[in-house]
Amino acid sequence: MKKHILLLALFFLPYCLFAQGTYPNKTVTIVVTYAPGGLGDLLARQIAEQLTTRTKQSFIVENKPGATGALGSRYVTKSKPDGYTLLLGQTGEMVINTFVTKDLGYDPNKDLKPIAIIGEVPLTLVVPANSPYTNLSELIKGAKANPGKMTYASSGTATPGHLAAAALSQAAGIDMAHAPYKGAGPAMTDVLGGHVDMFFPSTPSILQFVESKKIRALAVSSIKRTTALPDVKTVAEEGIKDFSFTLWGGVYAPTGTPEEILNYLNTNINMILEDPSFKKNLEKDGILVRRNSRIEFGDFMKSEFTKYAKIVKAIDLKVE
Known about the structure:
The chain is α/β, with parallel strands linked by helices. It folds into two domains: 26-121 and 246-314, 3-Layer(aba) Sandwich (D-Maltodextrin-Binding Protein, domain 2); 124-220, 3-Layer(aba) Sandwich (D-Maltodextrin-Binding Protein, domain 2), CATH 3.40.190.10. 44% of the residues lie in helices and 18% in strands. The chain has helices at 2-19, 39-55, 70-77, 91-100, 108-111, 136-145, 160-172, 184-192, 203-211, 259-273, 276-283, 294-314; strands at 28-32, 59-63, 85-90, 112-122, 124-128, 151-154, 177-180, 198-199, 215-220, 246-254. The strands form three sheets. A five-stranded mixed beta sheet has the order 2-1-3-10-4, with helices on both faces. A three-stranded parallel beta sheet has the order 7-6-8, with helices on both faces. A two-stranded antiparallel sheet has the order 5-9. Strand 6, helix 7 and strand 7 form a beta-alpha-beta unit.
């Protein structure tokens, strides 16, 4: 009898220890796969600060840029699955890279467990200030009248902005030339100079230029309008049904991380996401914040894979 009691006690010991708050009992690192200053870095630092406050244990951010997000992602997948090394994964390294990069070195669907989406950012279709187009319908009409002559900029081939613009061209039945740049900065410079016809960058990155009337915003790529540009219609409102492309960032853990830790993190992150001041701080920059379960995040990932697989195939984008 005593032997059975001892075995039961040993079986339940990890759960009892977890319930008593043994996680986290040391610093937790959230890896960001790009250099400081981008969306992922912002989301990671915001959530790390709040998790530190809630748990009374340090959550820090470590930037591991390289290989379009693959370097940091691989690092996390090879880390011990104990909840102390997490990943702030984004659209590129979690979805798009799987279609356009050979030998990625990790499989987001097998090697990582989604915990919670922290935020989503719509893209905003912008044109130069001197553009003749004041809405998306006019731009589409102009492109149809000049097949192959109008250009759209992107921050690089296979970036969300490139694929969103390609999807728009497919849906609208227009032919526009793609002008890939080495980053959003050079692309925006040529938009400001009137050297390209349109650009599909992230909303936070263009707010200052829209407000100063240096560029014109024609539409946003999300299903709903963004609070940052409430008067700008969605692409769907302009007639392209069900059009939705967003940049997003979420927290992941290596596969094998205990369910109790995954649930603990999801619960605490959702409490932060529901805090009015936290939401307001991000939403003023056009970042959508919403509560989401681990299952909802997983389902969202599946829908993203389906969407990007379709457009990559449609434009015959080659794997590097």
